[in-house]
Design a protein that fits this description.
Residues 145-279 form the DUF4097 domain. InterPro entries: Toastrack_DUF4097 (IPR025164). The chain is 7% helix and 58% strand. The chain has 323 residues and is mostly beta strands. Bound molecules: 2-acetamido-2-deoxy-beta-D-glucopyranose (2 copies).
Length: 323
Amino acid sequence: MPGFPEGWGGWHTPVLPCLVLGCGAGWWSSKAHVFVLLSLIIYRWPQTPANLLPQNQSVSECPSKSDFFRSVANKILFILDLDIKTSGTGCVKIQKIECDNCKIETEKGTSVLQSIKSHKIDIRTNGGKVIGLGTLYGNTDICATEKGSVNIEKLQGTTINISTEDGLLKTKYLYAESASLSSESGDIMLGSVHGNTSLQTKGGSITVDSSDGSLKASTYHGTIDVYVSQLRKVDLKSQKGSITVKVPESLKAYLELSGRKVDVSSEIQLKETQSVSKDDHVALSGHMNQRDEKDKWIKADTQNGKVCLKSQSWIQSVKLRSS
Ligand SMILES: *[C@@H]1O[C@H](CO)[C@@H](O)[C@H](O)[C@H]1NC(C)=O
Ligand SMILES: *[C@@H]1O[C@H](CO)[C@@H](O)[C@H](O)[C@H]1NC(C)=O
């Protein structure tokens, strides 16, 4: 069978009618039409840990129908292609599913996804909320137009693209080789970000509690507030808003900061600083805790706002995050 990852074993070949999806995954539709397409459903008993198996049931036993309905709720469903489309306020709720392609499209309805693993997760909404609980694992593309918002606990994939128009875009943990997140007027609020990340808004503000990779953030009206825990390249740009960069006191970096005003808090010692003031604009560059490293840098540039560089310990950033 094509497309099955190695080492999955323990299959019970197609025994599930669509109805059973309602146990592992469900949907409801009060004033809405729902269209679901499943190309193939295979129910998989998890092999490990063994204690996930129901008592007195071995992997090779085929459960009776009622047992099956009762026990499927705690198992993982494997589906090749899942394609759900709702209209009006029709909502979608999916949990504990593994699939090759997972496609969901709603109008105003909420999509709730919990613990999904897929090669490709594709979610579209025109005004609905997208809520992710647990980990969403896979290359992800989420597009929320109008007031549609995105709030995801943990996202992990090679490439991740998310866009909103007016709605908030929020993620607590983001792990991606390449992530591209954008919003027109919604805020982007990220917790802990790993990998190469690019963030863009027009009016919304951008907040990153902790970044340890390469980060590029740009906004027109919004403010930017970022804690950089470990550094590659950090490039922050705003036209009208202010930029706050927080770093650990021991960070080794080359810095270029420019804006209407540039404030460097006193705990941070910059060496070989150069400062140029021209027409209400200040540009300051300098080295922090090193002299010649130039590949690890932070650039923060705002036309009309102010740039602040502050020190913050990792512990403080964790405390702030959990408070
Ligand atoms: C994300 O966007 C980039 C650039 O548009 C594209 O190459 C990539 O395939 C997209 N990734 C996903 C998972 O849709
Ligand atoms: C970031 O991108 C570079 C090249 O574009 C890649 O070599 C690197 O592995 C990426 N970083 C992470 C953490 O995936």
